[in-house]
User: What shape does this take?
Amino acid sequence: MLPIHGGINFKNNEKTNSVSIQSFTTPERVFLNIPQGYTVNVSVNNAVDVGQVIAFPADEKNSPVYSSISGIIENISSECITIKNDFKNRIHSGLSPVELPLKELSEKEIESLSRLMCIYDGDIPLSQKIKESVGKIENVIISCTDTEPPAGIRFPLLKEFTKELLGGIKILIHATKARRGIITISETNEDFSVKLKNLITDKNLITIRILENKYPLEAPKYLLYALTRKEYQQENLIKDSKCLVLSPESVIALYNSFTTGIPQLYKSIAVSGNIPESKNISVPQGTKISEILNLCTLELKEKTQIINGGIMSGVSINSDDILPIGCERITVLEPREEKKRSCIRCGKCIDSCPMLLKPLLLYSNAINSNDENNLNSGIIHCIECGCCTYVCPSKIPLSNEIIKSKHNVLFNTDK
Assistant: This one.
């Protein structure tokens, strides 16, 4: 196991590790965003099938918009198509798997397929990441660590779709001309590595790395630091590190698209926090947050906070929002007030910083509008994880001010 400097080892961040992923195919409606410039090719009251194209991009570099359920087109606006579910789950007849052997496919063909199948890694198209990586990387790294509390979906995806993940890694190695694939898991799931090793047929091609259970391992910069002990700039991460870091869901979706011809129409998420029952759920793209929370038998209170993400890096969303494309977890919290006190110079923020920065110094510069000093102090290396704020016994909002200063520095540097 590789030990890691900084970060936080949360003891209770595995609420959904052993929970099966439940497929939810019955939202009453889905609401599919239509980007500007797309041409809608359906009309109100038309019947549509799962995987049917409902809008085309003007630029071939972009992905089509597919129906994620079967049903009836209920409404079309300039920004959204609403589909009412008929609960028949009809698959579109025009979908077919890739018939050519993998070795006969070029990197451009695989990149094109991932674009046509609307596969995203986080909120970035997988095709874009493949294009940036071809001939430039040595490793395809699949990050299967869930270190941010209260729960995560990456390890459950690895556990339930191991075959698909391994198949997707082989496709990506071929597409990018990488030397090998690496699957990272945290020490808390080390027992599963024995089963995983037995399923890997070419152990020279795909390896496993077990890492200390430290948040924020989900951040590619920190994960690469944990693996290589080197720091990389975010804007040149792939080129400088010679590594492509991906989440398991996009890799699984790539394999499934190859073998079935079905685009990435579902999103897997961990739902936890102050709710009666934590769940791992796979829902159609375009599902509203309120329908997801109903599955967890949650009755929303007036001040209940819904977070896209975990308790450290998440951002607030509303129950009426559509599930964001890059969402991996939804956390429900009850509000609480904490009083800020003066700094006691304990140094905990420095010890917890995964990028070896001095948060108190950065904070002091930030509140005094001294962004130039922060630039010289390495603020651009901050990965906005929030560890410094979390460990601060005086409850000082260090990360809030540091992030503002970092954005000021980046804006002025760009100018």
